[in-house]
Amino acid sequence: MADRFAHLPALKGGALASLVALLFGSSTPLVQRWGAGLGAFTTVALLYGGSALVGITLRRPADQEARLHRADLPHLLSMAGIARHLMETHAHWHDHEA
Known about the structure:
The chain is 71% helix and 0% strand.
């Protein structure tokens, strides 16, 4: 079956990112409920461990993965910078709520 969105990689990636964000948001109440009494380190270890298992399960051969090129570097750095500033803003808001 041909991929209908093969000619629109940004749309496909955006849809996947939106799905991941929705799944992450929906998992927060579950972690809050089932993680009661666990320490922060244990909770994070379980979350990252589960993520690693899914990543290993869904991994494709290297020749089927997208390759990074030098031209991608500005985009990667800009996304890392945006994420850094978002985290700083979140931390600032969180500090002022307490």
